[in-house]
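Q: What would this complex look like in 3D?
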Amino acid sequence: MSDIAIKIENLKKQYHLGAIGGRTLNAELQSWWARKRGKEDPNLQIGKSAHAANETFWALKGINLEIKKGEAIGIIGANGAGKSTLLKILSRVTAPTEGDIWIDGRVSSMLEVGTGFHGELTGRENIYMNGAILGMTKKEVDQKMEDIIEFSECRQFIDTPVKRYSSGMYVKLAFAVAAHLDAEIMIMDEVLAVGDIKFQQKCLGKMGDASQSEGKTVLYVSHNMATVRGLCTRCIVLKEGQVTFDGAVDDAISRYLDNISIFRNEFDFSSIKRTAQENQKILLKSFRFKDRTKPFFTYGERLSAEVKIKSFIDTTNLSIRMTIFYEDNTPVSTCYTSGCIEVRKNIEITVAFCVDTSILAPGRYYADIILWEFNDSAAHIRYDAVKSEIKFVVEEEKEFNHGFEWGHSVWGHIVLPEIVIKSVY
Amino acid sequence: MGERNHFKTHIRPQTEWFEVDLGEIFRYKDLIFLFFKRNYVTRYKQTILGPLWLIFNPLITVLLYSLVFGNIAGLSTDGAPRLVFYLCSNAIWTFFATSLTQTAGTFTTNAALMGKVYFPRLVMPISSVLTGMIDLVIQVMMLIVIMIGYTLSGNTFRIGPQLLLVFPLVLQTGMLGLGCGIIIAAMTTKYRDLAVLVSFGVQLWMYASPVVYTTSAMPEQYRNIYMFNPMAPIITCWRNVIIGTGELPIGYWGISWVITVLILFAGVIMFNRVEKTFMDTV
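A: Here is my prediction, written as structure tokens for the whole assembly.
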């Protein structure tokens, strides 16, 4: 017996662009008749050759992969990188255009939760239904019925038609069925994006068990890096239909995030458009995070950076202000320089500074940076401002928040220092 | 290839011309049964009469046939009571028609499900045909009740070993419906026209088959052509076997079997060609 669960050789998938299948039999016959007589196809768009009308797109451009039994593989990549196409081919929903795949073992794919659920059937009937669709026999479902009901947390409603279920219950029931399937290979496409945090943790735990103690092979596609990190033992980065990285999870994630161009470490402001609010007598030239090549910070770290400033006037009162926003545009906090900076006309200076960002919760942030001063008459002069350019990521440590993902929408963006218990009565 | 034999599944781009894994379909027999159950259970949910519709539907149709074709048009029934004659023909015809139309919609109505999960696609049309069999069984039971009623009032019906022919007839009708249905299903993935055509086509086909009239009503010189319609010998035999009217055209029935097998074979090939990639075009 070999220990390889999935072997993919030179896998390619081609899609036709433009309108396909939308043609009627009549149009097809017309085209065919025209071609027969060597005339121009009446259904082609004017100015397009027959070749151009058949434009194609390669969603996968030659994937080679070997996956061993018991491995938990994460597949990450930007939208359109081919992740879903790969999973579709693996779960035999569609066929490849070229290449071969050998699979050893039964595959259970969850490209969507609740596949095949019928609203009129009860929870119990749907468990049988869904189990059978995923390839279980009635006997197998019977054996697992109790576990499934228990895991789904829907015992009370199990004999109610699922059309009366809340969407959360629906998802829980669906996941419960798939998680209890006796397949050697499990394929999941971001199905954990639903359900409450507690249930997500439970699902991840179940998946982890499946690969670690039960020796199942897990393929998991997600945009949520925290879950990929928590579950997978190996990670593949897809880009434009090709594997660009295959190896350790942390390396893969940073490789993937590197590919996203917005995460630069240095920012050049020379081509940024300014608004009329700034008089531009002093200009921000560029910004750079120090001591790193990518703008990734670990939770608890301080942010140190350098900013280059070019002045066209003399002043001694220059201040820097920075406002940090969470990625969903909520302002988190603002900080400013305590002392004042002195600048001379036509001289470029570099200001190195440090901001205590240690209480920022893990997440993606961006910052506005503003140059301003109070002049002698206590008026606020705004020299220059660069908005939403500087982007950075605060990453969590393994132990952070007991392994739970930080819920920004409910807990806010700042982690206050730990509660200090003075005494307990 | 030798060292790879232990790989249970091999995914390839091009499929063989004829590649049906009957063993796999058999492994999914529970799914066939569950689809069958689902089709049946959900059909009459939230209807007042519920499964009673299974009785009312054919009853109303047959009464209408008796009125229009029997009383008004005065078509012959070869001496059989009209109700018995039309119910008998209608039973086997409805089975064929529902098998065909239900199967024809396989890909388009189940695209959402098939786009997400793999199972042998033939499971779906097979369970559709089985669902149609419920209607057939109920109509045959109605027929038996009515025939008993007629027997009590003096009519006699033949009971004998020929009744066993019912089973190959039902099997053949199911195969024919399945075959025609999956051909259309395969073609509708590309040409939606056929979906519109199918209900209309079935209607026409009914008048081209001896459902509301006797086979003997067809002039002798056209008989050979007429019997090439595989449903014509089936219905003729069916009626002869059950209510004893008309003839038992064994020769024509044999040809009809050949056509049925050919259609089913062609259907499976066409279905095979599209089932793996239809998600990209549907």
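A: To summarize the key features: The first strand of chain B starts at residue 9 and ends at 11. Confidence is low (pLDDT under 50) at residues 1-5 of chain B.
Q: Very helpful, thank you.
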